[in-house]
Design goal:
The chain is α/β, with parallel strands linked by helices and 314 residues long. It has two domains: 7-110 and 220-313, 3-Layer(aba) Sandwich (Rossmann fold), CATH 3.40.50; 115-218, DNA polymerase, domain 1, CATH 1.10.150.170. The chain is 42% helix and 14% strand. The protein has 13 helices and seven strands. The chain has helices at 13-20, 37-45, 59-69, 86-92, 109-112, 139-145, 148-159, 164-177, 183-193, 207-218, 220-234, 248-263, 294-299, and strands at 27-30, 51-56, 76-80, 98-104, 235-245, 282-284, 307-313. Helix 2 (37-45) links the parallel strand 1 and strand 2. It binds S-adenosylmethionine. Residues 8, 10, 32, 34-38, 55-58, 61, 82-84, 104, 106, 108, 131, 223 line the site of S-adenosylmethionine (SAM).
């Protein structure tokens, strides 16, 4: 497919807009602006006065979204930054409280389908995987210089890859001869390290390893944890925090962070000597995650693993 034709279809847009309770005087933050699909709907639903602050750390995404949302003029502010900095971003804009925050995690189809960005094991390109092209660490550096135990830890912690040890050893053996420089080279090393009887026909054997390396390169889990902590404090009473995640480890972080904020206490539940005086900061509105409809999955297969969780500031 020609790159200019690649589109990113936003996931669970109707559900997001409903949960955000968009209204015409509201201020909303889209922390993962991408190509602006969710932002566009938020702006429409909060018309004529609602305001949107859109954040992304990918310059290419910023350019696409600016072009798409241009006609909303001063109702939109687009910021090139990491969403973990949303406290400072909002302060600099002299905004004190917001009505809703959205994080739609992971990479966009535009990033994934661009071989130069090095996210995909299907498309040959340099192993890069940085969402923010100005950041220092590339996937190339990680696979070519991290130690075997470090690689193994990344593969397990961020990909739950049970063959992490074998993959890490294969990577180390290969790079003794030459650096691993392309996505397909890495995918082949990973695939060969997984015993054939454990290779699924449906899912590419390098899926988990690529996910793990991408999460490590972009420090995705830490960014998410920080954004939830900081973001909850920015919400006005009744304001809502929506997070769409695409794999179980990410979803677990969202679920646990919301639950701890709801309990208002970080002691393990049932601990008799717990003296926490902190009050609950949020009410979790989705005891179970909201999933895309079958129609949506048919129209946009990428949506099939999406999970939406929502917490409301109390
Ligand atoms: C799944 S896409 C979002 C798509 C968007 N909702 C839309 O409708 O087009 C995720 C976007 O979040 C951005 N992103 C991921 N982590 C980020 C972070 N820590 N800070 C800022 N942007 C981030 C990525 O660069 C990507 O453009």
């Amino acid at each position: 497919m020609k790159r200019s034709k690649i589109e990113h279809l936003p996931v669970m847009v109707k559900e997001v807009v409903e949960y955000l309770n968009c209204h015409q005087d509201g201020i909303y933050i889209d922390g993962t602006l991408g190509s602006g699909g969710h932002s566009l709907e938020i702006l429409k639903c909060s018309s004529p006065n609602g305001r949107l602050i859109g954040i992304d750390w990918d310059e290419d995404a910023i350019a696409v979204a600016k072009n798409r949302l241009n006609h909303f003029q001063d109702r939109v502010t687009i910021i090139y930054d990491n969403f973990k900095n949303l406290g400072n971003i909002v302060r600099e804009l002299k905004v004190h409280e917001v009505d809703g925050i959205l994080l739609d995690l992971g990479v966009s189809s535009i990033q994934l389908e661009n071989e130069d960005r090095g996210f995909s094991f299907r498309l040959e390109g340099p192993i890069d995987m940085r969402m923010d092209k100005s950041s220092r660490l590339k996937a190339f550096d990680l696979v070519n210089s991290f130690s075997i135990p470090e690689l193994e830890q990344i593969l397990w912690n961020y990909g739950e890859e049970r063959f992490g040890k074998r993959i890490a050893r294969s990577i180390a053996d290969y790079r003794k001869h030459k650096p691993i420089s392309t996505t397909v080279e890495l995918a082949d090393i990973v695939s060969a390290a997984i015993p054939s009887r454990f290779r699924s026909k449906r899912i590419h054997p390098a899926t988990k390893a690529f996910q793990a390396v991408r999460i490590a390169v972009n420090d995705e889990f830490r960014n998410l944890e920080t954004a939830i902590q900081v973001g909850i404090d920015l919400l006005r009473k009744g304001g809502r925090f929506c997070v769409i995640s695409f794999h179980s480890l990410e979803d677990r972080i969202v679920k646990q962070s919301f639950r701890l904020l709801e309990r208002g206490c970080i002691c393990p539940s049932g601990m008799p000597e717990c003296n926490c005086q902190k009050e609950s900061e949020v009410k979790v509105l989705t005891k179970k995650p909201v999933l895309p409809s079958e129609d949506e999955i048919r129209e946009n297969p990428r949506s099939r693993s999406a999970k939406l969780r929502v917490a409301e500031r109390v």
